[in-house]
Design a protein that fits this description.
Helix content: 25-40%
Number of domains: 1
Distance between the termini: 10 Å
CATH architecture: Alpha-Beta Barrel
Number of helices: 6
Number of strands: 9
Shape: globular
CATH class: Alpha Beta
Radius of gyration: 17 Å
Strand order of the largest sheet: 1-7-6-4
CATH topology: Protein kinase-like fold
Structural class: alpha+beta
Strand content: 15-25%
Length: 196
């Protein structure tokens, strides 16, 4: 869980660096960090901790792509989440998709990653490859996709299987994202915990 969310967070940072300078783009979604805590004296020795998100919790995308979500389509945060998915999909040449984007406003948590069967740069996601297929079939570009110059999936999805390599040297290698956790604890009121 930590590995997937923190890997997606690294992609979101690069997306933000490209999108924020664009005139009129505005605020960019942020995937909050999640930490694994070891509690050897507890019956359940491991727990995850993350910042508490206060406000209306919204699913901007769903793992299987089948659910129609008006907040995803009509809200700024939802459109920017869909653009982020499109951006990751294009930057990884259709090999990786950040999915299940949900949270409060522009702060996202509990995301998933789908990869092709062989994985991407040594990383295999926690979602089915079918999510990539469904995203490619259902995604509708919006003004933020256009601002980033992303190619429409309607005209390119048939060509994806034979597309030339568009690998970016700036993209994180998921297999090298640190799997360590913060040693510094924050104030308890800033975090919620989920026991696993």
């Amino acid at each position: 869980e930590c590995y997937v969310q923190n890997t997606a967070r690294e992609y979101a940072k690069i997306y933000a660096a490209e999108a924020e300078p664009l005139e009129g783009f505005g605020e960019v979604p942020e995937i909050i960090p999640i930490f694994l805590v070891h509690r050897p004296a507890n019956n359940i020795p491991y727990a995850t901790v993350e910042e508490e998100l206060v406000g209306e919790f919204v699913k901007y995308s769903v793992r299987d792509g089948k659910e129609v979500n008006f907040l995803r389509r009509d809200s700024e945060a939802g459109q920017k989440c869909c653009t982020f998915q499109h951006w990751v999909y294009e930057k990884t040449n259709g090999s990786l998709l950040v999915t299940d984007l949900q949270g409060v406003g522009m702060k996202l948590t509990d995301v998933g990653i789908a990869t092709l069967a062989k994985g991407y740069k040594g990383f295999k996601g926690n979602c089915s490859i079918s999510f990539i297929e469904q995203f490619r079939a259902l995604h509708q570009c919006n003004k933020y996709c256009e601002m980033l110059g992303l190619k429409s999936l309607r005209t390119t999805h048939q060509k994806q299987r034979k597309a030339t390599s568009m690998r970016s040297k700036n993209l994180p290698n998921p297999s090298t994202v640190k799997k360590t956790v913060s040693k510094k604890a924050r104030e308890p009121r800033d975090f919620i915990s989920s026991e696993h």
